[in-house]
UniProtKB/TrEMBL annotation:
Gene designation: purN
Keywords assigned: Purine biosynthesis, Transferase
Binding annotation for (6R)-10-formyltetrahydrofolate: 73, 115
Family matches, as NCBIfam families: PurN
Function per UniProt: Catalyzes the transfer of a formyl group from 10-formyltetrahydrofolate to 5-phospho-ribosyl-glycinamide (GAR), producing 5-phospho-ribosyl-N-formylglycinamide (FGAR) and tetrahydrofolate.
Protein name: Phosphoribosylglycinamide formyltransferase
Site feature Raises pKa of active site His, where: 153
SUPFAM superfamilies per record: Formyltransferase
Pathway stated in the Swiss-Prot or TrEMBL entry: Purine metabolism; IMP biosynthesis via de novo pathway; N(2)-formyl-N(1)-(5-phospho-D-ribosyl)glycinamide from N(1)-(5-phospho-D-ribosyl)glycinamide (10-formyl THF route): step 1/1
Residues annotated as catalytic: 117 (proton donor)
EC number(s) per entry: 2.1.2.2
Organism of provenance: Chelatococcus albus
Length: 221
């Protein structure tokens, strides 16, 4: 169980699946010095494997099943917003949350909602990023943590990790190396935002001087 100290930002993680990035964030937040406290994990899919992981870690969970809302995205997002308010959430981390959010919701959380994406944005927005990177023959691939804006995978970048595409790489080997880097940069980016060392100003992220250094990491493998 994590504690909620006075200066730790109350953070919710939104998932749809296995939740390995969620787990990386929960692990980082076990440190009492970490500036965010993970107080809620919320899924739009009742069967998401990450929910059991969150419960095992002592974190409160909630499910808002998008299927119950049919095509009504606005009602789903309103339900989501209400649950976040009930838990006094200050920051939201999307971690494999495979639902497009309405502009209303995104604008309510502007500057307070982060996403991790498995490519070096602005390259390869959307799905199947590793397959498309291999098809394009890029020599470098990676992952990005960014603030969420209404346009999909388009928000201002907080942190990236780049790694070389190796001869013989498959979608699976590349995905595994990128995922390992996601687990490094997401906790680092959340720490920057929660501590106020990275913040959204208009269309750009403004960093405290000491935070700028790690904005882009080159991984060796
Ligand atoms: C991660 O690779 C994340 O970057 C990706 O889904 C995976 C979730 O894995 N997200 C997107 O593609 C969003 N556009 P996880 O559930 O193990 O964290």
């Amino acid at each position: 169980m994590t504690s909620s100290g006075p200066n730790r930002r109350r953070t919710a993680i939104l998932i749809s699946g296995r939740g390995s990035n969620m787990t990386a964030l929960i692990e980082a937040a076990r440190d009492p010095q970490y500036p965010a406290d993970i107080v809620l994990v919320l899924s739009n899919r009742p069967e998401a494997a990450g929910l059991a992981r969150a419960t095992a870690a002592g974190i409160a969970t909630a499910v808002i099943d998008h299927k119950l809302f049919g095509k009504d995205r606005a009602a789903f997002d309103q339900a989501l917003d209400s649950v976040l308010a009930e838990h006094g959430i200050e920051l939201v981390c999307l971690a494999g949350f495979m639902r497009v959010l309405t502009p209303w919701f995104v604008e309510r959380w502007t500057g307070r909602m982060l996403n991790v994406h498995p490519s070096l944005l602005p390259a390869f927005r959307g799905l199947d990023t590793h397959r498309r990177a291999l098809e394009a023959g890029v020599r470098e691939h990676g992952c990005t943590v960014h603030f969420v804006v209404p346009e999909l995978d388009a928000g201002p970048i907080i942190r990236q990790a780049a790694l070389p595409v190796l001869p013989g790489d498959t979608e699976e080997t590349l995905a595994a190396r990128v995922l390992a880097q996601e687990h490094v940069i997401y906790p680092a980016a959340l720490a920057q935002v929660a501590s106020g060392k990275a913040r959204l100003e208009g269309d750009h992220v403004v960093f405290a001087p000491e935070a700028q250094a790690g904005a882009r990491t080159a991984a060796r493998s």
